[in-house]
Amino acid sequence: MSEAITQRLESTARQIRRHIIAMTHAASSGHPGGSLSAADMVTALFFKEMRIDPQNPQWPDRDRFVLGKGHAAPVLYAALAERGFFPAEELKGLRQAGHFLQGHPDMKKVPGVDMSTGSLGQGLSAAVGMALGLRLDNKDARVWAILGDGELQEGQVWEAAMAAAHYKLDKLAIFIDDNGLQIDGPVKEVMSSYPIVDKFQAFGWNVIEIDGHSMTAILEAIETAKAVTGRPTCIVSHTVKGKGVSFMEDQVGWHGTAPNAEQAAIALKELQ
Amino acid sequence: MMKKIATRDAYGRALAQLGGEKADVVVLDADLAKSTKTIDFAKVYPDRFFDMGIAEQNLMGTAAGLAAVGKIPFASTFAMFATGRAFEQIRNSIAYPKLNVKIAATHAGITVGEDGASHQTVEDIALMRVLPNLTVIVPADGPETEGAIRWAAEHKGPVYIRLGRLGVPVINDEASYQFTPGKAVTLRQGKDVSLIATGLMVSVALEAAEALAAEGIEAEVLNIHTIKPIDAEAILDSAARTGCVVTAEEHSVIGGLGSAVAEVLGEGQPVPMGRVGLKDTFGESGKPDELLKKYGLTADAVANAARRAMARKG
């Protein structure tokens, strides 16, 4: 991958992070921590990998994206706005009554959202169904999803993981945003979902482990996933909750708390 | 003796036919294809049949994903597990995004029989009726099932169809029956009492009307095959004519047809009313006919409720 491309993507990821801060601040609610940890993966998918058309959000041949950890809606909305699905000014309407940017992604309201999510554990099943349906139609399209490490505690995830391998869905690949934190504390203390790599391997998946904030590593993992046949791919991405904002990094308190004006100003400065 | 057919059998047959007519129809099951009769489809169209194993939550979520890419999925398992185990998947992944999934659930009610209460849902209508965007259908017999399945395949939006294991009398004409969603079917006209029934209790209500007629009581019989949206107009019209109503369903009297009709009458035309159904109880093991008798889902019980309701008229 050329350095120019990764640099461009890193710059876009910073812009996405600025949106996340600004929109959660404007909403006085929302989930900045897990949005910031997923920002690099989302950027790589929406600005480099996925075949999507902002002018035609329902294009049948497009790649699909499912945000399993739907509470990270701000990162998805920021990417969609930057990509041109709707004007960036709309981002400040997040979570406001009457505005289309719901607290969790709503496919009926937000152009570019392929599946309504928010209730953890349900996204991967929808991704499995999409991959099955697209394959029936002999479409070349791929299905991408991002799940949280805490989300893996939901039993439905493993039902879907079993099905994806059983049906050999090699056009399906997921990222695990392994930031190690959930609302009640560290994942390994609340209810350990580890070892994630071993679990997905045992379920029959191709598994890749990367630094989820290295754009180069993310892009390489995507290429590896695309080259694998007969199996879905799980990219276990080691990330930092709140990544990019010094006082939010690795702090569980920033899971579902919005920055106030002063905090937002500091964060935005750090993200320049 | 009237011809009998289980609504699940009619479902399997309709589904296999639909498979040939609509290439976008796909079918999912949870290791119960032989019981739900989706096997009829699976045999002819194996590429479009997905056994999801014993995993109902993922069954519903996968069906949602298939619908999101333009397929018309029929998701089948026992009604107990479809609506109970996977309730929240139906709510959040199907009803909320209004995805085009048809949940065709079999083995509803106590006529599951010997398997007992763990497998006999008498709560599914209540659970499905409360969900926005979802159409809820309970066919009374084979021809109505086929009509409902065909309509569901054409309709854009989520549908719940409640089917049974037990053979039930064919009361509609197989050649000419036309299923019209949301429209009550008046099977018998009368001026003394309205018997409003759904599912297998429709034929039982017809039997009750016959018995009442022998006493000179003219009962009107309405088949409410669409629980939601309910035909409020037909219910109010009938209640205005007869002055009292009895509902009959193979479901808890809490939250099902009886509740739906009470809501309509309470807001529009309050009249004396009785509800025949399971009285806030679970079922048990036994032969279907024995259970119907034990839990009061008989023509006698409906007729008695009708007499009581009539006695309360002003």
How is this structure best described in words?
Chain A: Keywords: Thiamine pyrophosphate. Chain A: Belongs to the transketolase family. The complex is a heterodimer of chains A (272) and B (314). By secondary structure, chain A is α/β, with parallel strands linked by helices. Chain A is built from 10 helices and 7 strands. In chain A, the strands form 2 sheets. Chain A has a 5-stranded parallel sheet, with helices on both faces. A two-stranded antiparallel ribbon of chain A has the order 4-5. Chain B has 2 domains: 166 residues, 3-Layer(aba) Sandwich (Rossmann fold), CATH 3.40.50.970; 127 residues, 3-Layer(aba) Sandwich (Rossmann fold), CATH 3.40.50.920. Chain B is 41% helix and 19% strand. Chain B contains 13 helices and 14 strands. In chain B, helix 10 crosses helix 11. Chains A and B meet through helix 5 and helix 6 of A and helix 4 and helix 6 of B.
In short:
The complex is a heterodimer of chains A (272) and B (314). Chain A has 272 residues and is an alpha/beta fold.
Task: Please outline the helices and strands.
The complex is a heterodimer of chains A (272) and B (314).
Chain A lengths: L2 H25 L4 H6 L1 H11 L14 E4 L5 H11 L39 H14 L6 E6 L6 H12 L5 E7 L2 E2 L2 E2 H4 L5 H7 L3 E6 L3 H13 L5 E6 L22 H10 L2
Parallel strand pairs in A: 1-2, 2-3, 3-7, 6-7
Antiparallel strand pairs in A: 4-5
Helix pairs in contact in A: 1-3, 1-4, 1-10, 3-4, 3-9, 5-6
Chain B lengths: L3 E3 H15 L3 E5 L3 H4 L2 H6 L4 E3 L4 H13 L3 E5 L2 H7 L1 H9 L6 E4 L18 H6 L5 E3 L4 H13 L4 E4 L4 E3 L15 E4 L4 E5 L3 H14 L4 E5 L2 E3 L3 H11 L2 E8 L4 H12 L4 E6 L9 H7 L4 H13 L3
Parallel strand pairs in B: 2-3, 2-4, 4-5, 5-7, 6-7, 10-11, 10-13, 13-14
Antiparallel strand pairs in B: 1-8, 6-12, 9-11
Protein name (chain A): Transketolase
Cofactor (chain A): thiamine diphosphate
Keywords (chain A): Thiamine pyrophosphate
